[in-house]
Amino acid sequence: MLGEVTEVFLKDGNPNDIYKIGVSVKRSTGGASNDFAYPLNPYIKSIPTIGEQVYLISALSSISAPLGGGFSFYYISPTFLQRSLNNNPLPKGITNTAQSFEVSSYLNPVPNVSSTNDKNNNFGKGFSEVNTLSQLQPYIGDTILEGRFGQSIRFGYTPKQTDAQKLPTWNASDSGAPITIIRNTQNDTNKKGYDKFVVENVNEDDSSIWMTTKQRVSLKTSNRVSIPNISQFNKPQVIINSDRLIFNSKSDNIILSSKKDVAISTSQYTTTINLIISAIETLAQGTFPVVGAATGPHPQLSTILSKLKSGIG
After folding, report:
1. String of b and e for 253-287 (b: at least 16 CB within 10 Å)?
2. Within a 10 A sphere around the Cβ of 33, how many other Cβ atoms?
3. Structure pTM?
4. Is the residue at 172 inside a domain?
5. Is 230 in contact with 218 (CB distance < 8 Å)?
6. Which of 211, 241, 271 marks a domain boundary?
7. Number of domains in the chain
């Protein structure tokens, strides 16, 4: 059973209004009646916009008796009616009957024309339409979660041969090795049109987290790093990329632990923790050359070096 969304409740305080939506339910007799519906899954919720079509299931409600009665509607998700990622309203639907839709827009059976031709759409107060937002290129077997505004999570792999329009921006010798990509972006790279596919790009997406196993990811670092060939690394790694990264510990330490070394690169310096400690150690031993003769160690360098090597503040 389908229902058209007529209202979305956004205020708390009344348990019967939590995540409730108003729907116009189309009856087999040809008429429609107004009712309410709640998410079928309490743990995963997809909030519809006004005018979208949702699948409805009639099931027991909070006031049902042990033997039945007191049924409520529960909705699953909006339909992919306009083939749009951002919104999928029904043209000339019940909710938007009073709106100034251009009927000629729908004579050509191309989905999502409402994004550019409809006027005064009532999608719900506060909702922002992004009518050029592109969707992720799928590969056979993928599991993809996408939000309405450019957020996505891909549980994927690396197809060796595919008929897909866009190829992955990563590669791997083992096609079946898993890769998980979390992306949050809305820029020119993924606003090519609702009917165009895009693929995650670690260098161009606004913010992303890549969790790999055997993939190689061509990350372009902001500055030169002391670790060579980082884009050729094909073992498990986690890549976090954005314009700014903040690691904040609310009540304890931030702990960096590395089997080998910790590389640091800024606009002025490229080094590693090992090199920094080694340089201080050299100074503490008094072996650095000066004019005339070698000097003795700085009286405080040994203490500083000891603290750095032992981790004592």
Report:
1. eeeeeeeeeebebeeeeebbeeeeeeebeebbeee
2. 10
3. 0.83
4. yes
5. no
6. 241
7. 3
